[in-house]
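Translate sequence into structure tokens.
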Amino acid sequence: MALEQEVKDRGQDVADAQNLVTRLAALAAGVPQALDLARQFAATLTTPAQQLTALQAGVHDAASAQQAITAAQQIQSRCQFALQIVHPAEQTWSSVSALAQQRAGWLQARWQQTHREPPPATANAMADPLARALSGYATATGQLDASMHAAVSFPLAPAPGGVTGPAAVIGWLAACGQQLTSAEAAITAAAGSIGTTLPWASQQAAADAAVTSAQDLLATARRVAAALAGAVDPATLADRLTDLTALRLAACPDAITPADRTLYTQRMTELNQALTGLLAASTGVPTTVPLVLPPVRLEVRSRTITGGGTEFRIRIYPDSFHVNAHDPRLTDDEARWAQHLKTAAGGRTLPPAEWAQAAARFGPARAAYLLNPDPNAGTRPGPWDQPATASALPDQWLAIGYGPDGTMLAAALGKPIPVPPQMADLAQNPQAASDGEPRVDQAVRWMIDFGEAVSKGMGLSLAVDGGTAGTPAGTDATGHATLSTLLVVGVRAAEATAVLTSDEHAFHLTISLNVTVNDAPHFQRRWCQSIERALM
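Result follows.
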């Protein structure tokens, strides 16, 4: 079974989280009682504090000082005996602490699947809401318990004899009384604060969320496993690639060091196999059909994902070969010149002088078209009436990222390209998406707005896990996210001969012969010279 171990591990995660929910529910009744017991103990400190104050008045000499010390020690013993009232509370808090340690141990075990060194304080893998909630509660109740024990631990009594003995004893009695008074107020306040700022309901909510998260990852692993069990359905490939990315990010959200590479590779072996299996999905194109892969230009920016991992935002810009800027219709001026050139040629070779004038007026490519225009094309009102489009594009783009060691790390399938994207801004209805952005026709906004590019299939988001970390530089512990290779490809399932023929014809009629296919796109120099693309 594909992803057998992944599904098993995710199922165990669900069981572990559900176990925590059950144990937290069992403590629900004892938690408020524990805080009440702390308040009750604090209330018992009032009378001993008053008794210690009263003892001060009876100290006059060494004998009375010794008697006061003995009485104070008896008061301390009674306070320590009263502390037994909170033993049930301490058992409850100990259980919470054990649950916090259990969750922390679970996180630590997952971290060690891909890392050798202990996790830093900022590790995304350790930023678990449930672990934080349990740890916070355990810490707060631990401090409360410690303060109660400290309250009944009096400082060492001074020697009652000597000239300064009685005064020292009086000061000691005052300090012990103040210790109890302060402890009463502090314990009462701490118990109230825990009940208000760390309500037990928030612990249970965090545990429920942990179960939901674990169940979601289990369902994700099962979907990918089911897709791999038979022939991968191309219609759901994009969703399954997204699912697999979620599994990889959960497995290793933080950057790895070179020393971690072996552990990382072992952890990701099954997920790597799943990625290979998903990409074996049929494109719908017979393997006997030759493919034409015209070049495109890629622009990539990366950003850190909240929660771990790196997102590479990929924009695809068609090369000149893709662009069909040819409008067979003639303006009135072009129609007159077409007739003039036909007359000047007289059925023979056009005189060089006539050609030079036409080429200077319309450009060599357009002048060549005027020698033999389409008689059925009709006319157009002006020179820029029809925008250039990119028609020789695939149905959708597939991006595959490879890590520093050449291992395939992630893949993403873009949205279907609905219609040939417009490549030229005719400035007929310029709009700005927000203040400070260029005003362009909505049809070409995809060229400057990443969200629009994604919606039109010309932009992709490739999320990768911590395995993209390259060699650390300088004193850095880990390297920055990097892809050794980024491959973006696509095919069109339908017959594309007519489209390619039309584009090739348009290419020769709109691009001068001294412009190479790999040069900067012609439309960018000619139509969009003033458009500055915004940051992704």
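Note: The radius of gyration is 38 Å.
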